[in-house]
Amino acid sequence: MIKIVVSEDDFSIDAEYRSLSSNLPSCGAVVTFTGLVREFSERTGVVGMRLEHYPGMTEKALENICIKASERWDIQRGTVIHRIGDLKTEEQIVFVGVASAHREDAFEACRFIMDYLKTEAPFWKKELTDDGEFWVEAREKDQSARERWRTPESD
Amino acid sequence: MIRILFFAKIKDEIGKDFFDIKAEPPMTVSEVRNSLISEFSDHENILKSGYALCAVNQQISNEDTAIQSGDEVAFFPPVTGG
């Protein structure tokens, strides 16, 4: 069971954890990841960021990433939440949670989903600073994080 | 006619969220890209292959992907979510 949410609204890690683990006696592990808005540029005076996305394609891309993960690991439930709109530093921006019978599957699948989300899901960050707004450029590091999951069978 | 959607930096710099190419499909992504570059030559750096990604019917495509009549086509920068 996969749950995908793209929304301006914040989320509760506790509520998401419970929906991943409750009424699932065969579940032995839940791994969750939460990403936060941070001041990551060299610019000073960052007050927050604006998240733009491609409605329709975003949800499809996230779903496809989860399907790819479930083909490689034993996933019982998965949740991906990504926020859009204006966010301030320290706010939650992204959540990935995976429930599985075993921890290895949950750890690996969670990381895989996050690495693919970074390079395949059509979201774009714009930094809001005291001096104006600046689009964030993609980083090579994210591409190489995704590359390490490639297998001869994968795309 | 093929309608091209723009997102993020490409939308901002070109100043439009879509543009209609006056050509009849089928066309390849590469042909559409060249047509956009000749239309918006000041913005070649953000439209060229190696920077702008192209999605056809909401799936990332490659330069040889064929675009048919009625397809949804979008050009956008490398993604930066998460």
In brief, what are we looking at here?
The complex is a heterodimer of chains A (155) and B (82). Chain A is α+β, with helices and mostly antiparallel strands and 155 residues long. Chain A is 33% helix and 34% strand.
Defining key terms:
heterodimer; A: 155 residues; alpha+beta; four-stranded mixed sheet; four-stranded antiparallel sheet; 33% helix; B: 82 residues; five-stranded mixed sheet; two-stranded antiparallel sheet; 3 helices; 7 strands
What does it look like?
- The complex is a heterodimer of chains A (155) and B (82).
- With 155 residues, chain A is of the alpha+beta class.
- Helices cover 33% and strands 34% of the residues of chain A.
- Chain A has helices at residues 13-21, 57-72, 103-120, 140-147; strands spanning 2-7, 29-36, 46-53, 77-83, 85-88, 92-100, 123-129, 132-135.
- Chain A has a four-stranded mixed beta sheet, with helices on both faces.
- Chain A is globular and about 50 Å long.
- In chain B, a hairpin with a 2-residue loop joins strand 4 (53-56) and strand 5.
- In chain B, strands 2-1-7-4-5 form a five-stranded mixed beta sheet.
- In chain B, 27% of the residues lie in helices and 28% in strands.
- Chain B is an alpha+beta fold.
- The A-B interface holds A 35, 51-54, 56-57, 60-61, 82, 93-94, 114, 117-126, 135-138, 142 and B 5, 7-9, 12, 55, 58-60, 74, 76-82.
List segments of chain B where confidence is low: pLDDT < 50 over at least 5 consecutive residues.
Answer: none
Give the averaged pLDDT of chain A, no decimals. 93
Structural class by sheet pairing and helices of chain A: alpha+beta
Q: What fraction strand of chain B?
A: 25-35%
Write down the overall mean pLDDT of chain B.
96
Number of helices of chain B: 3
Q: Give the helix proportion of chain B (percent range).
A: 25-40%
Structural class of chain B: alpha+beta
Q: Name the shape of chain A in a single word.
A: globular
SSE string of chain B, helix = H, strand = E? EHEEHHEEEE
Sketch the major β-sheet of chain B. 5 strands, mixed
How many β strands of chain B by DSSP? 7
